[in-house]
Amino acid sequence: MKQFLPLLLCCATLTMAAQQVTVIERTRLLQGVEGPAYHPVLNADGTQLLFSSGEQSGLKLYSFADHVVTRISDEPGAGIDAFWGGDGRVYYVSQQRRAGNLVYRTGHCYDVAAAQSCVVLEPQHGAVRPMSATRGAALRGGVSYASARDLGVAVATQGSEVIVSRGGKERRYSPVESHGGYLWASLSPDQSRVAFFAAGTGIVIIDLDGRVLARLGNYEMPCWYDNNYLVAQHATDDGHQFTSSQIVLLKVDGTFQHALTASTSMTMQPTCGGGRIVYTTIDGRLSQMKIQINP
C-alpha cells in the first residue's frame, strides 16, 4: 500500500497536468462606445459580432477588423435570436404587437457585403424558431423559410426534440427525458455532433443519428470552441433572480471542466468563433477572451 500510494499521487498529478487552461487575453469591448450589450453571437471565424442593447431593442454588428458598429435593425426583438447562416448572412426575427395584444413575428435576412436587409418571412402569429445550417439557414414557424433547398446539415430544437436535417431529409430525436424541453442546439465544427440543453438534465452531446455520446452536467447555452471543447454558462438562481453566473470550458467527452470566470462575476451568454470567446454580464458589459489549452 505504501508503494501504491506514491503511484496514485503521481498519476493524479499527470492527469491534472494534462489539462491546463490559461487565459492569455481578456479585454472589454465597446467600452464608452456602446451602452449595455446582450445576446452576443460571433461568426465562425470570430471576425464579426452580433449584439443587441436589450430584449426589446434592435440588432447591431461589430467588426473586429475596423472596430466599426453597424446598425442592422431598430425593430423590437431583432437581436434576441439573431444568428449567422452558413452562407455568411445574418438571420433574425423581429416582433410587433398588434390588435388583441397578439405578437406577430417577421423573418429577415441581412446581407453583410451589401449592408442590406430583406424580409424573408412575412409577419405571422406564433413562434418562429431559428435553424442554423452549413449551407444557409431556416426560420421555422406556422409558415417556414429556408434559404436553399439543400441546407447541408441543419439543427434546431422544438419542444423536447432535436431536429437534424441532412441532404433535405429531416429526423427528430428525443434522446433524454425533459418535461421542460430542449434549447440551444448547435452543430460541431466537424459536423458530426450536436450539443443542446435539456431542462432538468443540462448539456447533452449526440451524434447525427440521435445517439447520446456524453452528458456534461447542468450548464446552459453551449457553444463549440472547437471539436473537443465547449464553452457554456453556469448560472444559479433563487427562483426569482440570478445568484451567480460564470463562463466555463467543458471537454465534450465529459472528462474535464474549467471555470473561465468567477461565479461572482455574473458573466453569461457566451459565444465562440475563430479562437475568440465573447460574453456579457448581467448589466451588459461585453468582453472578449482568448485562451490556451495545453494537452
What does this structure look like?
There is one protein chain. The chain has 295 residues and is mainly β. Helices cover 5% and strands 55% of the residues. It has one helix at residues 4-18; strands at 20-28, 38-42, 48-52, 59-63, 68-73, 83-84, 90-98, 102-111, 116-125, 129-133, 136-140, 145-146, 153-158, 161-166, 169-173, 182-187, 193-198, 202-207, 212-217, 220-224, 229-237, 242-251, 257-259, 267-273, 276-281, 287-294. The strands form six sheets. A six-stranded antiparallel beta sheet has the order 12-11-10-13-14-15, with no helix packed on it. A four-stranded antiparallel beta sheet has the order 1-26-25-24. A four-stranded antiparallel beta sheet has the order 2-3-4-5, with no helix packed on it. The chain is globular and about 50 Å long. Residues 1-17 have low confidence and may be disordered.
